[in-house]
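Listing S7. Sequence submitted for prediction.
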Amino acid sequence: MVTTARGFPRFLPTLTEVVQVPAQPVEPPEDLAAKEAERREAFAQRVRQQLREALDLRMQDAVADAMLEQVDVIGDRLRRQMEDMVRESLETVAERLRAEIDVMVRDAVELVLADEDPQTVLDPDARAPEEPSS
């Protein structure tokens, strides 16, 4: 550094010179109300999601229980109806069999009473020997 007679340095900045400072991006001030609203909305969304999952599970359980109750009711009703149908069918078949047996017994009794040879009643295929015709 070279000094003059007065003792001042030769390249001393003066007050008339403009010093350039690198510009930093200006950040807007934080909006605390917006951040709080955003935080509350995120919390509400998490709570809604958890509630939705819990309600879905409860709803599935309730629907499954209701369906099982209905299946049990329908099963009991079908069982009773099937029992009634089987009972009616068996009664109808029994009546028909009784009627057929009555007819068969009546026919057999009439046949026995009408036939004089008791051997043909016991063995219908056995016929009395034919008398020789002369």
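Caption to Listing S7: primary sequence and predicted structure tokens for the chain studied. The two ends are 183 Å apart (CA to CA). The mean pLDDT is 82.
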